[in-house]
Write a structure and sequence with these properties.
Elements lengths: L4 H26 L1 H9 L10 H28 L5 H24 L4
Helix pairs in contact: 1-3, 1-4, 3-4
Length: 111
């Protein structure tokens, strides 16, 4: 069975979207205290941050998984031409690369 070029490009596009969206949410989550300081013009303190800000920070961490669920539901409910498997593999690839990077960095750390 031969795949068409269009299908292959769609799969590559959804894979790249999964990787890039995961990177974007990781970056926003990593910079979450700095965003607080920019918005509220004050120092960030984990103990005194508003509850809604802590909850929204948690939601940002789960956005890649939520997006996988939404894309899968679109595929099932509306027969959309989306590729949830390719997108999911892209999300998983980002986190696997992140874990590998942390393991390698930990192995080479002088501490």
């Amino acid at each position: 069975m031969e795949l068409s070029t269009r299908t292959t490009l769609q799969r590559i596009g959804f894979f790249a979207a999964g990787v890039l969206f995961s990177f974007a949410t990781f970056y926003v989550g990593f910079r979450w205290p700095e965003l607080y300081e920019l918005v509220f013009r004050g120092g960030f303190n984990y103990a005194s941050q508003p509850a809604w800000y802590r909850i929204s920070g948690t939601v940002v961490g789960y956005l890649p998984l939520i997006s996988v669920a939404v894309i899968t539901l679109l595929r099932v409910a509306y027969k959309r031409a989306v590729r949830p498997v390719s997108y999911s593999i892209g999300v998983g690839t980002f986190y696997a690369a992140l874990v590998a990077l942390l393991i390698v960095a930990g192995a080479h750390s002088p501490f």
